Request: fold
Amino acid sequence: MIRRTRRGGRHRDGQPPTTVYRRLWDGPARSDAETLDRSTPGWSVFYSLSRRRFYAIAAWPAPEPLIVFDVGTEGLQDQMRQAEATLTWRSLPEQARRSPPPVPRGEMTR
Reply:
C-alpha cells in the first residue's frame, strides 16, 4: 500500500494551496443589529440572514417568551418599546389597568 503525505491547504498533490474568498452577507444590517444590541440592555438583538429581519428577545424574566421582529431597526425599536409598555401595564393592579395602556413616544392618539 502506498501512502501519500498530504499537506494542509492542497486539494491534490502537486497543486498550489487554494484560498477561498469569505463573503460577508448583509454586513451593514448585521452591524446595525450589533449596535442596537449594545445600546439596549435587557434585550438581545440579532439579524436573521435567512429571513432578512431584525429580532429582539427579552433578556429579563417574563411570564412568557417575548420576541419581536421587524424589517428595520427603527420599527424594531418601536416594537420593543411597545412590548415593554404592554408588559408593564399588564403587571399593574386591576384598578390601575382600567385606563388604557400608555402610548409609546412619537405616536399620537385620536
Observations:
- The radius of gyration is 24 Å.
- The beta strands are 43-48, 53-58, 67-70.
- Helices lie at 27-39, 73-90.
